[in-house]
Amino acid sequence: MLASSFTKDKVEAGLDEAGRGCLAGPVVAAAVILPKNFSHPDLNDSKKLTHKKRMVLREVIMKEAIDYKVIEVQAEEIDKINILQASFTAMHRCVDGLTEKPELLLIDGNRFRPYKGIEHECIVKGDGKYLSIAAASILAKTHRDLLMTKLSEEFPHYGWEKNAGYPTKQHRAAIAAHGTTPWHRNSFKLLPEQKTIEF
Where are the beta strands (DSSP E) in the chain? Predict the structure, then answer.
């Protein structure tokens, strides 16, 4: 079982992101504040769950959370500020959007840009240790997967409904054959044989 909280009395928000390593689509962050007594036997790191379980848990989290927020930062902004800063920006905007103001932010990973006025703890593999971070990982991933599946209807060549924008052989072959879309991150190495992408 994952830990229900980091502290006994503080209002905690778990934060995580999805899509940092993708060639296309936004990076998506989520913040989740769960009740202190919340528990669920299946809630875990989203990467360890099946798609079906993630979708079931998504509904549970949205219903049971005290508050949550999901934010997208698009490819154009990622290209301007880089993917790490875009991830931090997405997380900050999640906190901005919470109605219930947290007193402590639990961040999945080892780095974070401090949020003014709120303490934070960086927890490596936190989505497998704390329920609120696991919940954030599920909301971020399911939101992003649903978005990329929808976008794949408009751009069917790239297989986003299966690869969610990650650099698979099919995705890179489609970029080579059909070029890029407005959803591609031009600052990323989209094709292995190219050192720079020219437009």
Answer: 12-18, 27-33, 67-73, 104-108, 119-123
Name the nearest CA neighbour of 66 among 30, 117, 100: 100
pTM of the predicted model, to two decimals? 0.94
Q: Give pLDDT, residue 197.
A: 45
**Whether 65 contacts 135, CB under 8 Å:** yes
Q: What whole-number distance in Å separates Cα of residue 154 and Cα of residue 190?
A: 20
pLDDT at 196: 45
From 90, 97, 89, 120, select the one nearest 10 (Cα to Cα). Answer: 120
User: Phi and psi of 13, rounded to 5°?
Assistant: -115, 125
pLDDT at 190 over 60: yes
> Cα separation of 156 and 168, whole Å?
15
Tokens of 48: 């360890």
Angle at 69 between CA 183 and CA 76, to 5 degrees: 20
Q: Determine the number of helices (DSSP H) and then strands (DSSP E) in the chain.
A: 6, 5
* pLDDT greater than 50 at residue 93: yes
Side-chain-facing half-sphere of 105: CA atoms under 13 Å? 28
